[in-house]
Design a protein that fits this description.
mainly beta; Immunoglobulin-like; 2 domains; 4-stranded antiparallel beta sheet; 1 helix; 7 strands; Carboxypeptidase-like regulatory domain-containing protein; CarboxyPept-like_regulatory
């Protein structure tokens, strides 16, 4: 009577199978990917880290202008299409996504328009001062 050969579980292609790639034993690819990811985390700012542009809108005599509209016109990276209204102290603030030079425009209640550039950096807020109103 014939006897059946004992069933054998096939040997894996590699005992050190890498789980991050589809190639058995390609640890060099996985290690290079992990090293690149570590380098990107060390050099790129965190996703929640943003630059700040702050400022004040003043009339010709130096008094704060409340209710002036301030918005971003141009910048080094995409930014939301939003506007800020100045408070009673004439101040405004924008959070921007990247470092670089931004163009900021102000329109006072009397439709006087003023424009300025500000360099935003991660370390410290950029400060802009507008003088509007009067002729």
């Amino acid at each position: 009577m014939p006897t059946a050969a004992p069933s054998r579980t096939p040997e894996p292609a590699s005992r050190d199978r890498c789980t991050t790639t589809s190639w058995p034993g390609r640890h060099d690819v996985a290690q290079a990917f992990r090293a690149a990811a570590r380098a990107a985390r060390m050099t790129a700012p965190p996703a929640n880290r943003r630059c700040l542009i702050t400022g004040v809108v003043l009339d010709p005599s130096g008094k704060p202008v409340q209710g002036a509209t301030v918005h971003l016109v141009d910048g080094p990276a995409p930014f939301p299409d939003i506007a800020a209204l100045t408070g009673s102290d004439g101040s405004f603030s924008f959070s921007v996504p990247a470092e670089g030079v931004y163009t900021v425009r102000c329109r006072a209640l009397d439709d006087t328009i003023s424009q300025a550039s500000a360099r935003a950096d991660f370390g410290e807020p950029a400060r802009v001062e507008f003088r509007v109103g009067g002729t």
